[in-house]
Structures are given as structure tokens and as C-alpha cells.
Amino acid sequence: MNITPFHQRRLSLLQHMQAGLAVIPTAPEQVRNRDTTYPYRADSYFHYLTGFPEPEAVLVLVAGRGNDGPQSILFCREKDVDKEIWDGFRHGPEAAREAFSCDAAFSIKEFDSKLAELLADQPALWFSLGHDADWDARIAAALNAVRAQARVGRRAPALIHDVRATLDEMRLVKDDYEIALMQKAASIACTAHRRAMQFAAPGRFEYAVEAEFLHEFRRQGSQYPAYPPIVAGGANACILHYVDNNRPLRDGELLLIDAGCEVDGYASDITRTFPVNGRFSGAQADVYALVLAAQTAAIAAIKPGATFHDPHDAAVRVLVQGMLDLKLLEGSVAGVIESGAFKRFYMHRTGHWLGMDVHDAGEYKTGPGDHDWRSLAPGMTLTVEPGCYIRPADDVPVAFHNIGVRIEDDVLVTQSGCEILTADAPKTIAAIEELMAEGQGLDGQ
Ligand code: GLY
Ligand code: MN
Ligand code: MN
Q1: 219: which of 66, 234, 377, 394 lies 20 to 30 Å off by Cα?
Q2: Active site residue 370
Q3: Helix orientation angle between 282-300 and 309-325, rounded to the nearest 10 degrees
Q4: E strands, 151-246, where?
Q5: Residue 247 CB neighbours (<10 A)
Q6: Ligand with an atom nearest the CA of residue 227
Q7: Which of 269, 360, 410, 433 is catalytic?
Q8: CA pair distance 430, 391, nearest whole angstrom
Q9: Nearest 5°: CA angle at 385, between 384 and 390?
Q10: Pocket test for ligand 1, best of 242, 295, 385, 410 (most atoms within 8 A of CB)
Q11: In the 8-state DSSP scheme, what is residue 18?
Q12: CATH of domain 173-439
């Protein structure tokens, strides 16, 4: 692993802090049942600053004072030969300090007492309160331990800053190392979507298609799906967070798949919708072409200086015009947008930040006003995912019943516009039908 970007990010945060001490714990292990835990994944903020993969670890950053330079201090598990026989390698503080380029490292057992020492006489604490009650209590105990020494002249920090607010701003703009990982996660997921298009066929089950994704993700070195895959045949496509994935696919239905993977902590998030039998029906093609036109308009709106809201605005305009043309709605484009009547068929937003977390860190607005949307800048990464979901209703033509379409790509804002990281997953009607015609119902290689 290249440790330089992690070191650079610590230095950037320390420079921003100017003074004080930051505490960034990693995630705890989570029990699944009895003595079995979920696969471990580090906290995203902690990973961003360290790359250290073990649980029970905390990063403490101390901004420089006087002649003392800034310090990165890692607390982690001790070496334990017996436990390593059962559960695998542990760095231990000494090897971790060296491998992760920290200034000092200590056993996690020393954390509480050392934190109280380190906090004394610091002007500010950088911590994110309110996310974990146990951590809030631990921090309060350390502050109180310092306050108890007031009579011997020790002072607790007078200021507490939300360190996540600063890290969120940093995480919004990806560095080259992050973009390379995101491209890898995107490319693996594209291969998996292509594989699924060729595997799906009437009679196969949604979970069997899901298995193709899991196989392709792991085969290419992704550690996990970035979120539970949605493999939704027919009417299930109109359930936005459908994850049961347990129904057989039927001839004549569409299949909506929202699935992405994680590579070294970075996510991809792709949705494709295609016909189970390889050919779009007339009504399916009408809705699909509309969503694709909305997505094309949204992507065209992404460039430096545009706002986060602009792609959504562009997509909604195209979708509403199409809903009127298809007689799903009545009225004018402006009237339908004003009333929000389109939300019956398009009820979510057109995208979100993407990064380590699939719905990544970072504010979308810079203030409370309707026009306070954040401006896009090179290095930001976001999804573009318009959709149209038509549940059966008396006032909707029967041909459209149960058609659910979403098309989602991952996009990097560049100096001149944007780049689609997920362009290798086919999305025009012609490209999808051609790929499916090449081999439908294929078993994975
Ligand atoms: N897969 C989650 C999302 O698209 O937001
Ligand atoms: Mn998404
Ligand atoms: Mn998605």
C-alpha cells in the first residue's frame, strides 16, 4: 500500500487545525450473532487518515506548538501470538508506527490515560460528538480527568470542534490515489453488469443474478459489495430499496440491478435496467429512452461552477416533458414541476456524492437558501441516477404498469466538464440488446 497519500492527508488536517488535538477512532467490530462478527470494515474517516486496517485503533493528531512539530500518534492492539494463531496478523504498535508512518504508537490499553495527558493544556479538541455514545463518554471522562487537575494548573481545552466537518470538506475532493481506486471499483462493477446482462434469462432467480455480481466482485479483488445489491425483476423494480432478490425472472419483464463494489475502501454504484428476454417492448423502450435522455441531460450539466442541483434540475425537466408526452401526467412542464406531481413516478434525487461511503461525506448546500447549492469542482465524484417507477393505477395506461427504470453512472468532475467512470456498462437500447443477443442465459466463466 502506498502510505504517502494518508500521510499527506494527516498533514493537511493538522495544518487546518493549527492548534489543539484531534481524536479519530476506527469502527468497532459488530457482532452478527453469538460469537460471529460481520466482516470487519474500518471507519471511513480513520481509514482516510491512516490506511490502518485493524479494529480497536485510534488516531490522535497533535498540532505543533513552539518548537514541537505536529505529531501523528496511533493506538492499536498489542502483538499477541496466541490470538494471531486464531484470528490472524496484528501489527502491534511498533510495527504499525513504522508501516503507517506515524510519529509514535502505543497499545490501545494505554489510550484513556494517555489521552488525558495529551489533552492537558491544549487549546482545542477536534472530535465528532454525538455519533457514538460510548466514545462521547470516553472523551468526557478524559476531559474531566484534566479538569480535576485544575488546582495544579492543568487546563482542559476550552474549544471543541467537529473534526468530521473539516474531514468532510477534504473528502469531497478526491486525490489521484482515490480516483484510481474509484475507477477500479467502477470498472469491476461494469464487468459484473455486463456479465449479468448475459446471464439473466426467464426462469433464473434474482439471487442467481446477484451471485454473478458477488463472484465477479471477488474474482477481481473487490473486498465487498459497496451496499446490498438490488436485483429487482418486474414489479420489484418499483420498490426503491428492494433487496429480497428471491423471485424468478419472467419473460417480458424488465430487470433493474443496482449493484456496485468496494475496492480498498472506495465504492462504485451502478444501476442498469434491461429486458429479461433481451428485447425491450414498445412501452419499456419508451420509458427507458426517457430515463436515458434525462440522464444524458443531467450528465451534460456537470462541470466546474455548475451546482450540485443542476443535474437534478436538468433530469427533472426532461422526465416531466416525457411523462406528459406518454400521458402519464397532464398539464405543463412548469406546472408539474411547481406542484411536484412528477414525484409520483420520480420520488428520489438524481444523485449523491460517492467515495468511501456510497452516500459519501460532504454537505450538499452551503446555506439554508433555495439557491445555496454547492458548486461543483474538479475532483468531486457523484452519481447520476434518474429513474421512472410506474405502479399500476386506473389512470395509467396498462402497458406501463410495473415498469421501473433507473440508469446510474458514477461521474468525476474534471477541469473541463466531467468523466463517466462507469462508461463500460452498456446503457443504450441498441448496446444492451446487442450484448444480450451475443449470449443470453450464459453461465459465468
Ligand atoms: N445504491 C444506492 C444508491 O443508488 O443510492
Ligand atoms: Mn446511488
Ligand atoms: Mn445505486
Answers
A1: 234
A2: no
A3: 150
A4: 159-161, 224-225, 230-233
A5: 17
A6: 1
A7: 269
A8: 26
A9: 160
A10: 385
A11: -
A12: 3.90.230.10
Sign of CA dihedral 140, 141, 145, 150: positive
Q: What residues contact 349, with CB distance under 8 A and at least 6 apart?
A: 312
Is residue 408 flagged as an active site residue?
yes
Say which ligand is closest to the CA of 411.
Answer: 2
- Return the H-helix or E-strand segment holding 134: helix 133-147
User: What is the position in ligand 1's atom list of the atom closest to the CA of 408?
Assistant: 4
131 is known as an active-site residue: no
The secondary structure of 298-365 as a DSSP string is HHHT-STTSBTHHHHHHHHHHHHHHHHHTTSS-S-HHHHHHHTGGGGT--S-S--B-SSSSS-SS-SB
Ordered per-residue pLDDT tens for the chain, 445 residues: 899 999 999 999 999 999 999 999 999 999 999 999 999 999 999 999 999 999 999 999 999 887 788 999 999 999 999 999 999 999 999 999 999 999 999 999 999 999 999 999 999 999 999 999 999 999 999 999 999 999 999 999 999 999 999 999 999 999 999 999 999 999 999 999 999 999 999 999 999 999 999 999 999 999 999 999 999 999 999 999 999 999 999 999 999 999 999 999 999 999 999 999 999 999 999 999 999 999 999 999 999 999 999 999 999 999 999 999 999 999 999 999 999 999 999 999 999 999 999 999 999 999 999 999 999 999 999 999 999 999 999 999 999 999 999 999 999 999 999 999 999 999 999 999 999 999 766 775 5
Domain ranges, ordered by start, for the chain:
4-171, 173-439
Residue 348 annotated among the catalytic residues of the structure: yes
Identify the residue whose cell numbers are 456510497: 358
Q: What's the pTM value of the predicted model, to 2 decimals?
A: 0.96
Q: Is 269 in the pocket of ligand 1 (CB under 6 A)?
A: yes
The CATH topology of domain 4-171 is Creatine Amidinohydrolase; Chain A, domain 1 (3.40.350)
